[in-house]
Specification:
With 335 residues, the protein is of the alpha+beta class. The protein folds into 2 domains: 56-219, Uridine Diphospho-n-acetylenolpyruvylglucosamine Reductase, domain 3, CATH 3.30.465.10; 224-330, CO dehydrogenase flavoprotein, C-terminal domain (Enolase-like, domain 1, 2-Layer Sandwich), CATH 3.30.390. It has helices spanning 12-20, 35-40, 76-81, 90-98, 102-107, 110-114, 121-124, 138-141, 165-170, 273-279, 286-297, 308-330, and strands at residues 5-7, 26-29, 48-51, 61-64, 67-71, 132-133, 136-137, 174-178, 185-189, 212-219, 224-232, 240-251, 254-263, 270-271. A hairpin with a 6-residue loop joins strand 8 and strand 9. It is globular, with a radius of gyration of 20 Å. The N and C termini lie far apart (44 Å). The structure holds flavin-adenine dinucleotide. The site of flavin-adenine dinucleotide has 30 residues, from strand 2, helix 2, helix 5, helix 6 and strand 10.
Length: 335
């Protein structure tokens, strides 16, 4: 592990300034559950770590005019029990409930999850983000059973590691991004945050050196219902094989608008626009859920060892829709 400075700013502006120094060769420290893993393996070598946990505004969950705002230092454990989230955002709660690692629950954060580096074994073994050798993709010809089945025609074949992104996109969440200068603030829909890189140096998000996520904002309109289904291999320390988060406005039993977002199937969270469009005007039934799930995976282009993931992704979409149907039929459901 390389030597690095440790900085603990107490304001957002100070954090942005500290991150922009050293030519931006710095890293944000939130829970550190994954960052220390990357540092240990020399996969990242920042000159400075900027710890966000002493900035008071980042440790809060607050009510906004149209929903809630969650600080980047709020842990998953706190979110699970927070009264402002109770009975709302079912898609988000399902993800929190699926994380069974006590370490990740008590230290991990939403923003840390969104910025997670891929779990691709080529990347984690030092072959770079795209795992290319002499212009050839090692993934294409090698072990690729956990890699992308959608959006994999470009150089990136890994799957986005974020477990929360599909739920946040389905819920229409935005990110508040601070930096690179101390007073610069940008609001960005979560779906615009992710990048499928064309080069090893591009990274997996739009964040530039000196920028960090200060808050995640989730709107709550009172009529949108949401659900998530994650296909997990084990009940312990684990990442899903495929996930789907869905949201919809349903009135008189008919879907008026819908969003379907799949996770762990593509280098970025995958929004199934045409499948969601096909749901509009329909009732949520076993049959409509199955045919919409077929549409969601129709563009899949599996690699040599991961055809099985197509069926798993299809199942995730269908079951997420059926969970949504349960909520809307009882109508005591949550947004
Ligand atoms: C051994 C191990 C097991 C794990 N098991 C699971 C599991 O079972 N389930 C699961 O879902 N996840 C798991 N994870 C992944 C990870 O712990 C979680 O996703 C966690 O939520 C990440 O949050 P964090 O705050 O600890 O991120 P950190 O480790 O602090 O950061 C992760 C990355 O995000 C960047 N970052 C953090 N916050 C910000 C911010 N506000 N702005 C900009 N960049 C930021 C960091 O610089 C770093 O690059 C595991 C990780 C490891 C190493």
């Amino acid at each position: 592990m390389n030597h690095f400075e440790y900085a603990r700013p107490s304001t957002e502006g100070e954090a942005a300034t500290l991150l922009a120094e050293h030519d931006g060769n710095t890293a944000v420290l939130a829970g550190g559950t994954d960052l220390f893993n990357l540092l240990n393996r020399d996969l990242v070598a920042p000159a400075r770590l900027v710890d966000l946990k002493s900035i008071p505004s980042l440790g809060e969950v607050t009510e906004t005019l149209d929903g809630v705002r969650i600080g980047a230092a709020v842990t998953l454990d706190t979110l699970a029990r927070h009264p402002l989230l109770a009975g709302r955002f079912a898609a988000l709660h399902a993800v929190i409930d699926g994380i069974h690692s006590i370490q990740v629950q008590s230290m991990g954060t939403l923003a840390g999850d969104l910025c997670l580096a891929p779990n691709c074994w080529y990347y984690r073994s030092g072959y770079g983000l795209l795992a290319m050798r002499d212009g050839e993709s090692l993934v294409e010809t090698g072990r690729n059973e956990h890699h992308a089945i959608l959006g994999n025609r470009g150089p990136a074949k890994f799957v986005s590691a974020s477990r929360f992104a599909p739920a946040l996109i389905a819920l229409g969440a935005r990110l508040r991004i601070v930096g690179p200068s101390a007073d610069e603030v940008t609001l960005l829909p979560v779906e615009a945050f992710f990048v499928s890189p064309k080069t090893d140096r591009q990274g997996t998000t739009v964040l530039r050196p000196g920028q960090f996520i200060s808050h995640v904002e989730i709107p709550a309109d009172g009529e949108t219902r949401s659900a998530t289904y994650e296909v997990l291999q084990t009940e312990g320390l684990d990442w899903p094989m495929a996930t789907a988060s869905v949201s919809a406005v349903v009135s008189s039993g008919v879907v008026r608008s819908a969003r379907i977002v799949m996770g762990h199937v593509a280098p970025t969270p995958w929004i199934a626009h045409s499948a969601a469009q096909a749901l509009v005007g329909q009732r949520l039934t076993e049959e409509s859920a199955a045919s919409v799930a077929d549409l969601a995976v129709a563009p899949a282009t599996p690699l040599s060892e991961n055809e099985y993931k197509v069926q798993i992704a299809r199942t995730a979409v269908k079951r997420a829709l059926l969970r949504l149907a349960e909520q809307t039929s009882t109508e005591g459901g949550v947004a």
